[in-house]
Amino acid sequence: MDFSASYDRTTKTITILVAVLMLAVLTSMWFSLKGAGTWLPLLFMAVVSFLSLVMPYGFSVKKYQLSNEALIICRPFGNKRIRLTTLGSVNNIDPKLLRWSWRIFGSGGMFGYYGNFSNRQLGTMKWFMTRKDKVVLIETENHKKIVLSPDDPEAFVNTFKMLSGRS
């Protein structure tokens, strides 16, 4: 079963602002290097800007899938597959529990929130989110935490419990 994962306003805003800023820097460089006779700095910045947009997009969440065997986090650069047998509990949580989280490694708003994050209440977590207002927390059997943001968290939790045989 598929569960959509749409961007919240903050994700859209951050993504657009970063893209516009990169375009502004490239445009400024183009005008300043126009008469200099060298295009190498502009080419370098164009490649860096391109990679700075493509890499975060490639690891961003597009949707979640649940089957009898696995939770699949669908991403452009390859899906993340987690066997249901390795997952313990799943619950909707109050988004306020994610406040004051800090990013250890990952994206903090550009094309979503994903990677390793931590806070005092929940400890270290692996985020695969596109929004911060609809949050599902999954605890693995070895006590690791995975945070998702399906558009319909209730349906996701109920489907997970049904497929995994947990109530």
Give keywords:
3 helices, 10 strands, alpha+beta, PH-domain like, single chain, 167 residues, elongated
Question: What secondary-structure arrangement, pairings included, does this model have?
Answer:
Elements lengths: L1 E3 L4 H25 L6 H19 L4 E4 L3 E5 L5 E4 L3 E7 L8 E8 L2 E8 L3 E7 L5 E6 L4 E4 L4 H12 L3
Parallel strand pairs: 8-10
Antiparallel strand pairs: 1-2, 2-3, 3-4, 5-9, 6-7, 7-8, 9-10
Helix pairs in contact: 1-2
In N-to-C order, the SSE pattern is EHHEEEEEEEEEH
Provide the gyration radius in Å: 19 Å
For the secondary structure, the number of strands is 10
Global outline? elongated
What can you tell me about this protein's structure?
With 167 residues, this protein is of the alpha+beta class. It has a single domain (1-167), classed as Roll (PH-domain like), CATH 2.30.29.30. Helices cover 34% and strands 34% of the residues. It has three helices and ten strands; from the N terminus they run βααβββββββββα. The chain has helices at 9-33, 40-58, 153-164, and strands at residues 2-4, 63-66, 70-74, 80-83, 87-93, 102-109, 112-119, 123-129, 135-140, 145-148. The strands form two sheets. A six-stranded mixed sheet has the order 5-9-10-8-7-6. Strands 1-2-3-4 form a four-stranded antiparallel sheet. The longest helix has 25 residues, at 9-33. It is elongated. The chain starts with a strand and ends with a helix.
